[in-house]
Amino acid sequence: MELRRLRYFIALAEEKHFGRAATRLQIAQPPLSRAISALEDEVGAQLFDRSRSQIKLTQAGEVFEGHARHLVDRLDSAYRETRAVGQGSAGRLRLAFVGSASYGVLPTLIKSYRSHYPEVELALSAMNNAALHSALVQGEIDLAVARPSLQDDELRSQELSMEPLILAIPDNSPLAAKSALSFRDLADQTLVLYPRRPRPSYADQVLAICAREGFEPRATEMAQDYQTAISLVSVGAGIAVVPKSVSEATRPGVFFRSYKGHNPGTALSLHARIDNRTSHVMNFFDVARKFRRGPKD
């Protein structure tokens, strides 16, 4: 049964006149008459009483009208919902991020995306870089926010932010009382590094700064992610080198301090598989690009 014929039937049932119904449908009257006759042949019943100047529904037509309206409404709804998902304005988007991204630009970026696409369900989860890369490759997530950037030619990437590094120091450490800190002050300290594996990782970037400053850490304490690392700092297990944005949230037992010395900074990057060009993913990248540029003067 053609949807077009159902729409014609509903228009004629409401107008009760072939001429007015044809005008409303923006078609000529003969095609409308043929479509209604074909519909009656298809259902096996006369739907309209044409014996008077103003046509009216037969008893069979009255029964069919309710079903026709229900079918048209359901199909219209299906078209709208399918179109919305296809355009990325509804549906589901899976985004995972490193723990340190919970601070800084990501929360604001997510709010911006939600304001543009409020009907999209955002499924959020935290992972380390290795898990992010694996989940993207396996198609378990759509987007990854990583630190440092994921190196893979099969991934689309965009930098979200670049920020300096700072030190996370236990509040009972002698270094917490110093007015100015140098990175070389860490030479005789225990460094809390993350992630533990796989390597190379952010931990190796911190070790590279140590080498650049001319020392190796006296001892290291390895953690699997940022949240574990900052917990170790809070209980006095050592000092961590962290993105400046994490200092936006106070942490009991932890002082955040800037330092003098080599500071390459750290970038937060957005990634997706190159072959994933769904509207949801492309819309998020578009929002991220506009967010990165900031408001125009």
Automatic annotation (TrEMBL):
Residues 1-58 form the HTH lysR-type domain. GO terms for molecular function: DNA binding; DNA-binding transcription factor activity. One of its GO terms (cellular component) is protein-DNA complex. CDD domains: PBP2_LTTR_aromatics_like. It holds the Pfam family LysR_substrate. InterPro entries: LysR_HTH_N (IPR000847), LysR_subst-bd (IPR005119), WH-like_DNA-bd_sf (IPR036388), WH_DNA-bd_sf (IPR036390). It comes from the Bacteria. Keywords: DNA-binding, Transcription, Transcription regulation. Belongs to the LysR transcriptional regulatory family. This is LysR family transcriptional regulator. It comes from Actibacterium mucosum KCTC 23349.
